Every structure is written in C-alpha cells, then in structure tokens.
C-alpha cells in the first residue's frame, strides 16, 4: 500500500465515522447527495478519492460542516503527493528544475538510486540537453529547452555546497544507455570519472551482476523525511514513515553491493573503453 492509498483509506474511515455519528445509513447519504449508492462505499473503503464538492455535501448531510476545512486539506495533500507530469510541466520544464533546487537545498543529506540514466545533478550540459529534449517530446508541455537546461545546470551548484552531502547510487546499466551521439555519451562518462573524486559526493556503481533484492524504481531521499519517485506518468512524494522504511531497506541493500572509489572508476572506464580506444579517458 502506498502513502496515497493509506491516506485514502484513513480519509474513508473518517468519513464513515462522521456518517455513523450522524445516524445516517450509506443508502440515505447517497440518496440525499443524489449519488449512486456504490460511491459512498467506494469512498469509505478508500477506493475513490472524494472531490472537494463531495466533502462539502458529505459534511452538510452529516451535520459536520466544522470538519470540512481539515478534510479538504487532506484531499489537497493527496493531490500534491501525486502529480502528473503533464500538470507539473504545463508551464514549462524549467520551473520544475527550479522547484527541484528548493527541495535540494532544504536537505543536508541527499541519497538516491538511479537507472537508466545518471541523476540530474551529475549530467553534463550536452547530456542534459538530450535528456530534457526527449522529456519535452514525450510528456509535452511548453518547449523551453534552453531555459530548462540552464536551470538544471544551476541545480548542480548544490553539489559543492559544504552544507550538503550526496550519496548517490547509479545502476551500471545507466553507463550504457544510449543518449545522444558518441561524443555526448563519452563526455558524460568522463564526467562521472571526475565526480567519483568530488569531496561532497559519494558515488557508488551498483553492478549488473548483483543479488536480486526487489523490484526497485529510481528514487531520491531527502534527509530521512521525504522521498521522490518518478514514474512514467507522474512524480510521487512519499512521507509516510512505514513506506519510507521500505526505501531505507532497499537503499541499504543496494549500497551494500555498490562499487566505490577505484572499483567504481574501473566500471566507468570499462564503459568508455567499449566505445573504442580513441575515446579512452586520459
């Protein structure tokens, strides 16, 4: 069960209690609100998230108008936790990068696991340009590529801020994902070789031949209170302690198998060597 699922379940149980306290059956509430009876059941079981108007009708019928502001705030929090990319990028992709910077600077420790491409903080300008161009093409929204790339590059300044430390895990497969032409891909790999030496960044490469842990998506952990997960259609914000614990467990298992320092450089260099001897990092 996700953070959003749990919130829907708890909200439904709360609405059920309000109905029962008012001495109203589900059938009677549905009739008064002019809803199908199944709607009441779905809301109370956490299968359907009520709209703000639904909440207003529910509270009016149950005589619990004083509860409405808090219930509406709960629903709005659910919508904030699950944001579709089309909504996030409706005003362009650059604002999304700037919002990311605000979250970056709010945390002293940022950890994450990325596949199939390196984290935004670790991307070269050419690589970021290719990635964001693909994102704009796939998701749609305003085509503000140049501004989005500049905003992403500015986000990377936080990597050198002494108030922050990054411990990032990169799947070895990301070293081989085809992004742009050979020059772009090799430039990105050479950059990762440099990142391994940076004092504020701990970069681990999770090898291809690792032990299976669980089906794990890319995720980023901000201190120990917030996690961002990107799916094909949306960005999830996770704050529920029980769910955070699963990501901490996954993180620890991945981190235990990651290669660091010289061993990480060997894996990155192998990806460069595969491009041809003329592209070997010097």
Describe what you observe in this structure.
- The chain has 282 residues and is an alpha/beta fold.
- It has two domains: 3-83, 434 Repressor (Amino-terminal Domain), CATH 1.10.260; 97-119 and 162-279, Endonuclease, Chain A (2-Layer Sandwich), CATH 3.30.870.
- 52% of the residues lie in helices and 13% in strands.
- The protein contains twelve helices and seven strands.
- It has a seven-stranded mixed β-sheet with strand order 1-7-6-5-2-3-4, sandwiched between helices.
- Strand 6 (226-230) and strand 7 (234-238) form a beta hairpin.
- Helix 4 packs antiparallel against helix 5 and helix 8 (125-139) crosses helix 9 (145-155).
- The chain is elongated, with a radius of gyration of 23 Å.
- The relative contact order is 0.12.
- The model is unreliable at 278-282 (pLDDT under 50).
Distance from first to last alpha carbon: 49 Å
Let me know the number of strands.
Answer: 7
User: What would you say the CATH architecture of the largest domain is?
Assistant: 2-Layer Sandwich
Number of domains: 2
Average of the residue pLDDT scores: 91
Briefly, what is this?
The chain is of the alpha/beta class and 282 residues long. It folds into two domains: 3-83, lambda repressor-like DNA-binding domains (434 Repressor (Amino-terminal Domain)), CATH 1.10.260; 97-119 and 162-279, Endonuclease, Chain A (2-Layer Sandwich).
